[in-house]
């Protein structure tokens, strides 16, 4: 069927359903305010013995997902929440007129309320024998004939259709909620305090990313949607809270791919008197707790890979990872040599990129895709981490780690830089990069520097991409599949 023919067919079906809606309007008011149901489908299954023994009249509500007509009877599966129940309408029980109306004017997709008694059919299916019914909402637009008729784009763009047609999608998002709740419970068990910080910020910071910009009319002020909540959470460490965390929506004005959405969910936490080794231990325990609940025997399956967490995370220093892949020792390498090595691997180098940025591009291209089993990449070059503390054994590096699983990053963590004078130098170096055209370089935040000058204890910090954690635990290979309403280009 061509696009034009399909559009005409859709228009015809919609008109037919509008005509049916008019027929319902002649019987009484449409779209009632509520429906007093006594049970959900799950409760009917759980309480079957009690309800069938006394022939109790029950009231349920849900969406019709199929129709089977057989002369004087109609069978319908009614879906509510995570469950379903079959309903059975008989002409002899409803009366000829009401049964004929029921048969003619109800469509797949309609939401109805039903009352009746519970029994089991000859095929042993638990069923409600209908004695009365009410239309609660008409599905004027027909549902897709079957789930497989929906494209991946349609599932993401019209998530409500995906949720109606595919119970696996509903279960995935229920699992997402359970995963986030498990992370929250873990942190509370570890005596972290949950806090909230501003989404709209006068300066963006805490990450290297381009921000979204807006304007506050009453203040006549340019504001930025946060790219991270790091600098605000560390202000709280300065203020005397020793362990804090936040589940935050962050916004980065950058490209989209299978692991990036411009709006995403992060968890960041900070602990006073910790360094990155203690944060590494915290994160490892958090992931193992998730795998214990959502995996099996310390393992999860992700695509073609069985990922084994039972031995924890491998430690891989950043420069060692590059040397393993290229055979080149990048320790102390100059910019021109790094540029030549990058171009040898087809990586373009812009004039604004310093040597450490070039190494980061090499690492992303050559090393990250092969980090399938749990790996902590540690001790990054200093330029890549303007908010991290200098490594105690090598001043060219910082005390930082990123966790990789299945070829992508799921967390980033530091021993946090708490020297306000060194932090100012790092911010100024970032501003130099910005002046040279690096749109993702960080900005100098005087208010944050003032907080550091007040005194921040040694601190370990962690940022976890919760969407990516959900991807791992649900075997999803696109962030769009774990975000209910991902960013999409306009249909036109």
Structure report:
This protein is α+β, with helices and mostly antiparallel strands and 492 residues long. It has 2 domains: 141 residues, OB fold (Dihydrolipoamide Acetyltransferase, E2P) (Beta Barrel), CATH 2.40.50; 257 residues, BirA Bifunctional Protein, domain 2 (2-Layer Sandwich), CATH 3.30.930.10. The protein is built from 16 helices and 19 strands. The strands form 4 sheets. Strands 7-11-12-19-18-17-16-15 form an 8-stranded mixed beta sheet, with helices on both faces. The protein has a 5-stranded mixed barrel with strand order 1-3-4-6-5.
Low-confidence stretches: none
Measured on Cα atoms, how large is the radius of gyration? 29 Å
Fraction of residues in helix: 25-40%
Q: What is the CATH T-level topology of the largest domain?
A: BirA Bifunctional Protein, domain 2
In the CATH hierarchy, what is the superfamily of the largest domain? Bira Bifunctional Protein, Domain 2
Tell me the quaternary state: single chain
Shape: elongated
Strand content: 15-25%
Strands of the widest sheet, in order across it, are: 7-11-12-19-18-17-16-15
Please give a quick description of this structure.
The protein is an alpha+beta fold. The protein has helices at 3-27, 41-46, 48-53, 91-94, 96-105, 152-157, 159-165, 167-189, 230-239, 276-294, 318-326, 335-344, 355-366, 420-435, 446-454, 466-474; strands at residues 58-64, 68-70, 73-80, 83-90, 111-120, 126-137, 193-194, 200-201, 212-216, 221-225, 243-251, 263-272, 299-302, 305-308, 314-317, 375-378, 400-405, 408-415, 459-465.
């Amino acid at each position: 069927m061509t696009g034009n023919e399909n559009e005409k067919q859709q228009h015809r079906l919609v008109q037919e359903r509008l005509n049916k809606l008019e027929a319902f309007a002649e019987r009484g008011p449409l779209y009632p305010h509520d429906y007093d149901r006594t049970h959900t489908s799950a409760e009917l299954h759980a309480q079957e013995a009690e309800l069938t023994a006394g022939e109790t009249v029950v009231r349920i509500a849900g969406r019709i997902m199929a129709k089977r007509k057989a002369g004087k009877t109609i069978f319908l599966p009614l879906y509510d929440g995570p469950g379903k129940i079959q309903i059975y309408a008989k002409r002899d029980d409803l009366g000829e007129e009401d049964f004929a109306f029921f048969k003619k004017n109800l469509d797949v997709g309609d939401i109805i309320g039903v009352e009746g008694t519970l029994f089991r059919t000859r095929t042993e299916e638990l069923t409600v024998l209908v004695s009365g019914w009410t239309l609660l909402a008409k599905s004027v637009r027909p549902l897709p004939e079957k789930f497989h008729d929906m494209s991946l784009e349609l599932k993401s763009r019209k998530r409500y259709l995906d949720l109606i047609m595919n119970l696996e999608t509903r279960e995935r998002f229920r699992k997402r909620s359970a995963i986030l709740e498990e992370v929250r419970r873990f942190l509370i068990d570890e005596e972290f305090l949950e806090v909230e910080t501003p989404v709209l910020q006068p300066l963006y910071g805490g990450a290297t990313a381009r921000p979204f910009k807006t304007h506050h009319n009453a203040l006549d002020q340019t504001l930025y949607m946060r790219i991270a909540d790091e600098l605000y959470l560390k202000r709280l460490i300065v203020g005397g809270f020793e362990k804090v965390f936040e589940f935050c929506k962050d916004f980065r004005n950058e490209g989209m791919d299978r692991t990036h959405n411009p709006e995403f969910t992060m968890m960041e936490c900070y602990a006073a008197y910790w360094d990155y080794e203690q944060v590494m231990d915290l994160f490892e325990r958090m992931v193992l707790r998730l795998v214990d609940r959502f995996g099996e025997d310390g393992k999860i399956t992700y695509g073609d890979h069985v990922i084994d967490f039972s031995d924890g995370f491998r430690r891989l220093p950043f420069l060692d990872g590059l040397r393993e892949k290229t055979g080149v020792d990048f320790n102390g390498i100059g910019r021109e040599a790094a540029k030549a090595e990058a171009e040898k691997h087809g990586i373009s180098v812009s004039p604004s990129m310093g040597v450490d940025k070039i190494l980061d591009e090499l690492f992303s291209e050559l090393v990250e895709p092969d980090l399938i089993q749990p790996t902590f990449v540690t001790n990054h070059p200093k330029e890549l981490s303007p908010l991290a503390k200098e490594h105690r054994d090598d001043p060219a590096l910082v005390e930082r780690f990123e966790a990789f699983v299945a070829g992508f990053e799921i967390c980033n963590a530091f021993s946090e830089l708490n020297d306000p004078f060194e932090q100012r130098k790092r911010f100024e170096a970032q501003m130099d990069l910005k002046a040279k055209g690096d749109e993702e370089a960080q900005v100098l935040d005087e208010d944050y520097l003032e907080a550091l000058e007040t005194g921040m204890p040694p601190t370990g910090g962690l940022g976890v991409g919760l969407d990516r954690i959900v991807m791992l635990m649900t075997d999803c290979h696109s962030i769009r599949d774990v975000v209910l309403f991902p960013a999409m280009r306009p249909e036109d």
